[in-house]
Amino acid sequence: MEGDPRPGPRICEGDCAVLKRDDVFKAVPVLRRRKIIFEKQWFYLDNAIGHIYGTTFEVTSGGNLQPKQEMEETTTETKEAGTDNRNIVDDGKSQKLTHDDIKALKDKGIKGQEIVQQLIENSTTFRDKTEFAQDKYIKKKKKKYEAVITIVRPSTRILSTMYYAREPGKINHLRYDTLAQMLTLGNIRAGNKMIVMETCAGLVLGAVMERMGGYGSIIQMYPGGGPVRAATSCFGFPKLFFDHLHEFPLGKVGSLLSGTFSTETLPSEREDSMLVEEGSNGLTDKKQTCLQETEEESPTEASMEMNQTEKQETMDVNAEDVEFKENKEKENKESVREKQRKQWERRKKLLEAAALLREKNADGLIVASKFHPTPLLLSLLEFVAPSRPFVVYCQYKEPLLECYTKLRERGGVINLKLSETWLRNYQVLPDRSHPKLTMSGGGGYLLSGITVVLDKGKSDSSNLEALKMEEPVSKRCKVQDVHC
Fold it and tell me: Which of 162, 280, 347, 457 sees the fewest Cβ atoms within 10 Å?
């Protein structure tokens, strides 16, 4: 490892890494003696610690990982290949090796590359296949018998690909190319002050944090009791990144806009100190009563003429009770103080986030939620400064169409665009590059625009005119007659 000429970060214990095999990904923490199961293979990551990210490992006996040696393919030999595959019949009799023979080879500890070579040698139709068919056969067998994995460093592209392939419902079917467009349209860069509202397991938040690189500030709006950051933790960000991350409950946005916002009803320092004193006083009272009981018991025991050994035993038991109560008293005090410290930290963070929002000078807004986007966007746009971009993602088109209409009526935005991304993968190989037969059906829809100064008087008059134009003709006539 010391003589490895390739630069780059190395795998360390406690990191969050991504396992890759072909097009399959899985995020795992790097810990010693922890069994990992990936693609029907089990192994330990102990031997991977210290190697460079991007190294390919081979799973050996006992679940150990060994760096795969870069072996040159035997292309110097003259390959025998047929002109076409018309005379090849797939009857299952072309392979001489049986399942028991292959299992015996595995039990002997023979590597997957050697097993693939023996499969080629024992195939009666391999030489009759075309060169393209031979390459396809080798690739298929390597995928089945070679236990090879690559450990890569987590990034937005890798994690978004992983979530979209494994659990698309958790990220609202947000495709990786759509996420890339959100970052571009939202003008995410270092030093920004961003507002992020998402219910995509923290994937969008992690992508914004990665793009900003720890510079600037991010305010995450969350529904419910607390934010969900399962995907954010997979990025493995340093502590510095989280120092600039603030959170604010979505349910308190209305009170913040109306000016009636107040922090949660948390006990003050005086109340908490009183709780500590009450707990300690209660325990001391119990301690005193316990001592009184022991004092009362001592003469009764003397009156009963107990021997010296029995007295010593009772004294030991009483001492143990007193010591146990003292330890419990200390634990209760520490738990109350810890609870008090957490409450004040939560209140302090909430006040910091509220102060940032009250400035109403955010540099951008990103919304990717399972909730209806219209009320979210109309309320959160109040905190965005003029001439700043905003992007809204939704899996379906109809909610964004309604949002588009409401924004047109309200005003205060320009360059509104509703778009759908279209993605198709291509196979790029010599003499056979073509679009793949399967493609993604849809990656969701994006509504983007730029904020401008909102003239409230003009917007109110335009809203009245819009409502008047929507009224039926007969109704407008009646209103005019009444006024006459």
Answer: 457
